[in-house]
């Protein structure tokens, strides 16, 4: 039986090994409230990774929850600033685009026409920001789909742009 347990420990994912490490220790704060398991796991991981002795208890959970909220909210602004930057959006877009299209199969003219960055635009009717991918590729799950003027585009305001174009056509 010991051999089979050893086999499973070798195959065990890191979280299981972390749990075994935690439960072997005698100084681990115990959980008494059923809603604190997630917070306790995060604190166990934090303290073990820093090599610090556990200096919190179940009674500290309200303060620990507040501390995590403040910490995560502080990081949220940095995360938002990162993912909304032009550099990040370009890199993410082209990593995705290169993963869904085999560009070497196409001519350089085709690549020049369709391997391009989307443009963030504001809908003329609803004023919502959307990605204008025309001409270019849009996501359809794990694959990209080439968009053209007559494509069925599910992005907001695609029809609004066409309608405004057609409505403006007769007024000149």
What is the topology?
Layout: H1 2-11, H2 14-24, H3 37-50, H4 61-83, H5 86-100, H6 108-114, E1 119-122, E2 129-132, E3 136-140, E4 143-147, H7 158-169
Antiparallel strand pairs: 1-2, 3-4
Overall tally of domains: 2
**Helical region count?**
7
Rounded radius of gyration (Å): 26 Å
**Helix-strand makeup class:** mainly alpha
Beta-strand fraction estimate? 5-15%
Low-confidence stretches: 1-9, 155-159
Oligomer: single chain
Family: Belongs to the peptidase C48 family.
GO molecular function, one term: cysteine-type peptidase activity
Transmembrane segments: 6-23, 32-50
Domain Ubiquitin-like protease family profile: 23-68
Summarize the structure.
With 172 residues, the protein is mainly alpha-helical.
What labels would you give this structure?
single chain; 172 residues; mainly alpha; 2 domains; two-stranded antiparallel ribbon; two-stranded antiparallel sheet; 7 helices; 10% strand; elongated; disordered N terminus
Report what the structure shows.
This protein is mostly helical and 172 residues long. It has two domains: 2-83, no CATH class; 86-169, no CATH class. It contains seven helices and four strands; from the N terminus they run ααααααββββα. It has helices at residues 2-11, 14-24, 37-50, 61-83, 86-100, 108-114, 158-169; strands at 119-122, 129-132, 136-140, 143-147. The strands form two sheets. It has a two-stranded antiparallel sheet. Strands 3-4 form a two-stranded antiparallel sheet. A hairpin with a 6-residue loop joins β1 and β2. The longest helix has 23 residues, at 61-83. It is elongated and about 65 Å long. The model is unreliable at 1-9 and 155-159 (pLDDT under 50). Residues 103-158 form the CxC7-like cysteine cluster associated with KDZ transposases domain. The chain crosses the membrane at residues 6-23, 32-50. One of its GO terms (molecular function) is cysteine-type peptidase activity. Residues 23-68 form the Ubiquitin-like protease family profile domain. Keywords: Hydrolase, Membrane, Protease, Transmembrane, Transmembrane helix.
